[in-house]
Amino acid sequence: DLPIHTTRRARTRRLPTIHAPPGPAASSPSTGLCSKGAGKVSHTRPKTMLRLAPAPPGATNLRRTRPLSLPSRAAIGSDAPPASSTTTRQALVDLTRKVGALGRSGRPGEALDAVTAAARSGVRPDTRLATAVLDACAAGRRADLAASAWEALFGPAAGLAPDGRAYEALARACAAADPPAWSELGRVMSEMSSAGHALTPAVFNAALGAAARTRDLERGAAIIAQMEGAGVEPDAGTVEAVRQRRALRSLLKKAFGA
Description:
The protein is mostly helical. The protein has helices at about 75, 85-105, 110-120, 125-140, 145-155, 165-175, 180-195, 200-215, 215-230, 235-240, 245-255.
């Protein structure tokens, strides 16, 4: 087994500022987030779709803040029931429901513990369960746990490939952090696009909601411009995301007539 730390850490009120790895800033023609701070709303579309600040010496990468891994498929062994068995399918359904309930009650650490224990007993996580774990982390505003869970569930040893819903859940977790993990969210959007998954309203809604929540109007304006540039139409969730910010509502209406 890979190293694993499932002891629930004391919840902190704020996560550290997230920075990109040292080196030139990443960019993508259709995705990403402007990294300017809050201030006067800009009506001009940002020239760069993804801007990440270089990491200062000793900066902590969000993906490494809480090491977590699950037993690999090889480590689980041949004694595990076949993936197609009724027993395994029902176990996955029950575990997914349990993880969802733990997430709704604000206990993402317990959700991760439950998945880890099940994996060690031979129940291999599927993509739906992995997405439920990420949603639980988002509900608990624990972007650090979500990033660690992502590596454990979708890493090389796991044998799972994330789908669009999984990327959406990770984006929600990054956006829900306090403060929002903007650089990490930008990377999630870039990776989602690179993996062949179209950016969805749910991803932009998460980012836009975070900008509205933190009163970061300039970044919110950039997100709306990027959403328009990517050809992603708003939905009811988009309207709800900007409901509390009149300036962003006006920009959304101007861009889409929403």
